[in-house]
Amino acid sequence: MDFLSHKNNPKRFALNMSAAQFTKFYIMHLLQVHQPMISEHFKSEFKKLTNNWVPAPSTLLDTLHEMSEQGLLYRKEDYKSHDKKRQKVYWYSLTDEGKEEFDVLKKRYKLLFEEQMQILKQIMNDVYR
Asked: What Å distances lie between residue 106 and 46, 66, 91, 94, 110, CA to CA?
C-alpha cells in the first residue's frame, strides 16, 4: 500500500489520490454501510456524493474485479431480481480482510483529507475573501 501525500507525488494536488484509489476507498465505505451491492448501486451512490462525477465504467469494474482478486471483496453471481430471472449480476460484499484494509485506509486517508481541507480553506480565504 502506498501512502498518498503531496510530498511523495508533486504532480498531484487536490485530494492527492487517483480516481481508482478513491473509487476503491469509497466502495469499501459503501459496503460497510449497505452490503451486498451491484455495480449500479455503486454508480448511484457516487453520483449522490458528488452530484456529477462517477468513476468511468472501466475504472469501477476493474476496481471491483481487482478487489475481488485481492480477497477484499466477496463476489456472488446471482440475478438482479429473483422475480424476473433475466439479468445476471455480481453482488459484492466486504470480506473480513476487506474490512481490516478499510480500517487502515480510513486512518491514513483521514490525515490526507484533513490536510487537503486546510489547503482548500486557505485558498478560499486567500482568493475569495
From this structure: 18, 19, 23, 15, 6
**Whole-model pTM?**
0.78
Question: How many other CB atoms are there within 10 angstroms of residue 49's CB atom?
Answer: 12
pLDDT in tens, 22-35: 899 999 999 999 88
